[in-house]
Each structure stands twice: as C-alpha cells, then as structure tokens.
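Aggregate trends can hide what the representation actually does to any particular protein. In the encoding step, the backbone of a single protein was reduced to a row of integers, each denoting a local shape. The record that follows shows the chain in one-letter code together with its fold in token form.

***
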Amino acid sequence: MTESRFARTVANIHEPFYLICGYGDTGQALVSALEERFMRTVVIEKKQERINVLMMENYPIYVPKFCADASQPLHLVEGGLKNPSCNGVVAITNDNLANLHIAITVKLLKPKLTIIGRVDSHDAAANMDSFGTDFIIDPFEVFARKLHTALHSPNLLLLRECLTGEKNSSLCEPLNPPSIKLTFFGINFILDVQDKSWTPILYTSMLFVSLLDFRDKHLVLDI
C-alpha cells in the first residue's frame, strides 16, 4: 500500500480503532485478539517481511497497514493519531528508543490519547514514565511476576490465565513445584517452595559441595 493510499484509508475510518506500532510476535497476538473482539486496528511496521505476514492473515476486519518507521511523527499522523476515532496507540516495537519517540509524539500531538509503551529495562521505563506514558509494559518484569505467582500461588495463576488468557484456550493443571533439598553444615533440609517451610530430614557428618541434580526434580546443594 502506498503512503498516500494508506493515509486516505485511515482517514476514512469512522469507528473506534487502535494504532499498533510494531507487528512482531506481540503485535501479531494483539491484533489477533482485537480482531476476535471485532475491534479495528491500524498497523505500522518497519520490516516488510512482517507486513507480508500481516497480509497473509485472514482477519474478519480489514487492517490498514504500512511499512514505515513509526517513530516518525508524520507516519503516526498518517496512521490516524489525529483521527477522532483513534482510541489509543500501542508502541510495541523491539526498539526502546523508537517506543519512547512514539510515546513522546503522542503526548505532544494528542495529550489525552492513551499510549501504551513497551520497554525492556528499568531505565527505559523511567524515561518513558517521565513523559506521561499511560501504561508501561516490561515483558521481563511481567514474566518474573508470573513466575513468582506460579511458584507461590499456582492456583491463583491458573485463575488469572482463565480470566485473561486466549479465547477458547484449555485450562492446564496448576504448576506445583517440587520440594528443594538443601544441606547446611551436614544437615539435610527439604524446602517447601509454596509453604516456605524447612524440614530437617537427615544428618550426615560430611561437609562438601555437591552438584546441582535435576534428574529427580530436586535441587541438591550440599555445603
């Protein structure tokens, strides 16, 4: 699609839509989820091969798409930034600086519009927050929180996935982490990860450093 045709197509959208900047794995999943809910999207992606992937999708609602650098203000405007029907902008490219430039442009040209930005470091998050970004997503921090919940409250994680997961996805069994076996100064302990309780199980006079053994699903550490 040519630049002028893309701009005209977006200008003629009169129902609510979201401007998605970046069509990597996350962008593809987001557009797919919004399409399932019959919500319109517009995509700006820098890599032509990702645009080609989008062109092959059989979405129920047509997705205007353009291969360009979304961090350039002109392309954001062409993508519908100033369109009254634009409900928000999602900056999920794989470049922290590009996402920051997108967030700044949105807040300068349309301050009341919701902007969601992706970052991969605390410094980038702090920088983006200083410009008033509405929602900042750090995938590494999200994963860390989910892992913590999986270890300490697996049933809570299962409920969360049920409420927020993909439509029609099947429920899996809760993750019940195995006990961890540790030895301190010749005394063996079993650590229950969920209950955070220690239980001495065996005494030995040997003091040594052993291997990490995952074959029987136990973490064995002898000191």
In short: The first strand starts at residue 17 and ends at 21. The longest helix spans residues 96-109.
